[in-house]
Amino acid sequence: MKKYRTNVSAPRTPFLWSLLLLWTLSAVNLSCETEDDTPPPSAYVAPEPEPVTEDCTFKIALPDISKGLDFECEGPEVSFFGEKDGSISLEFVENPDASGINTSERVAEYIQSEGVETWAGLFFDLADKIDFSEFQTIKMKVYAPAADLAVLVKLEDSSDGSINKEVQSKTTVANAWEELAFTFSPSDSDTYDRMVLFFDFSGDKAAPTTHYFDDIVMAEGGEIEEPGESGEPSTAPSAPTVAETEVISLFSDAYTDVLVDTWRTDWSDATLEEVSIADNPVKKYSELNFVGIETTSSPIDASAMTHFHVDIWTADAEGFHIKLVDFGADGAFGGGDDVEHELSFEGFAQEEWVGFDIPLSDFTGLATKEHIAQLIFVGAPSKQNTVFIDNVFFYNIDGVSDQPIGPAPEPSIPEANTIPIFSDSYTNVADTNFDPDWGQATEVSEMDIAGNAVLKYENLNYQGTQFAAPIDASAMTMLHIDYWTADSSQLNGYLISSGPSETAYAFEIVTGQWNSVDIPLSHFSSVVDLSDIIQLKFDGDGTVYLDNIYFYDPPATEPSVAAPDPSVPGADVISLFSAPYTDVPVDTWKTTWSVANLEEIDVDGNATKKYSDLNYVGVETVGNPIDASGMTHFHTDVWTADATEVRIKLVDFGADGAYDGGDDVEHEITISNPEQGTWVSLDLPLSDFTGLSTQAHIAQIIYAAQPAGSATVYIDNVYFHK
């Protein structure tokens, strides 16, 4: 096999800050010129003689990425980092599988031995800074040993490694060529002239691996517009239930916090905002690569604690790492007695609060816990995620409360869609007896939890609820119950109609937190007459707290009737999408840079656009820009069951008809809290688009929504009119 080994030396430059060394290397945000494990300049390795092929003599050269890198006749001079106890090599070799999408003769072979860092990789300089104005995607063919391995492309300014951007992709096949895409944006142009590659990024480096890569090229696709950001929570996390005497809290409304020097060290790579979610203080880390939290001046003695807890909410993080660092008895970083351990989490739920209760015994490298001075959070994909943080504390499991400290989640179903039995959020049915004498051993009481009424069933064997009059729930579809228990091992709920006729529902028991359960009434309807419910019953054991008991029918999630027919005369309309009119050409109703799903559906016999998982979507008429200079209004009908905000942007590309040609103008209008569950006709005066100083070459309409990435919006009757 023909091979060419590139020069792999790199200078050794000591770090100015030892603290920055420890973490920045582990999070891979250090300029590749400052790696401490690369050989000194004197360790230069001379290249092997240049092999001659039939067509060319292979040589080392600064690559011009605009022309692509195919490694047939030349390759870059590369440097490695993160060898640690292992080794890294790169050679240009014969294609191991010249078939399918890659039949080229020569490719790059990258080998990592066991013992390298999880962030080990290579870098090489480029001939010029990359221009993303025309093409925003870098594509690379990869031949990997396994599927689901992370491949990270990081671009840097070679003179200042702190100026960088990272994009991650994952392999989908093993031992076969595939093409991975890494999307950047026009705003990244003329910034980066160094490429850093990581194969099996953050993976298990316990065994040697070989990756091949080839054909690094610029391609179409990318982010023409960059509106919006990932979503955010609308509710606060559940209040902690551990007794305060058994807690060391860094950040939680439920406790008194200890002193924290900083929630974002100067060596962090993330943006921190102090925000309020449902009147609850929360830390928001956006563009999160890694962030350090320090208690150096007052190290935490967690030797009597058993667990570490944190609540996180994210719409886009696929991985989350937590590192604890103990500085030792000397209280100094790098003093010789430091210990640390990092845990990684994947597969957690998105767009809801997730609580991590981690035994400190899982931090196996944390041999001492008396002087914890650093907590480090890492998000993945790097710098492409936003994470909200709350309730950060250490605790002793013996202090877990035997009753809820905070209230159950507040219901979100409109009262018109409910029959409330017991809830502070609604007007409950009258004169219900929550403790009829059925000979039970259960002790029933009503107590206050954080200003919220809760039913307490102590020493539960069985317990009934008697309605003053039968309840007709035949128009409802669900029964909702919130429960909390510290010690119950079984809990069943029953609906009872005249006869009596009853059927049980077995709850899945989760202790120490409020659990929201939504039970389809179809579970009971084969036995129970839903139009004649006279009683509820629970049986089980232990002590159980109940709240928010109600029947409901969820609001519609999609329209059942078409949008209203427009009444504007056709002669006064420029229609993009409306059945009563003749539509002008539209290039696309979902550009490649959109973040949404589009379906063409029929609603009550009328064609409708459905955008789900909507962050933002672009509609383009670049091929035939719209001259709306004679129009006065922009009209669109929208229907949503969940969007709390809808934004509409109009973009005029100017006389040159080109995006970013220097004469573009645009304006966005926000519709807050649009009415849900019904068609809303938006007839917006063009004069309200104050930034749209010209209207003769409109080439883009952009719809956006909140919560970003999870809203569903239906669109019809899109037109300009006068």
UniProtKB/TrEMBL annotation:
Organism superkingdom: Bacteria
InterPro entries associated with the record: Galactose-bd-like_sf
SUPFAM superfamilies for the chain: Galactose-binding domain-like
Signal peptide: 1-31
Presence of the UniProt keyword Signal in the record: yes
Keywords in alphabetical order: Signal
Protein's UniProt name: Glycosyl hydrolase family 16
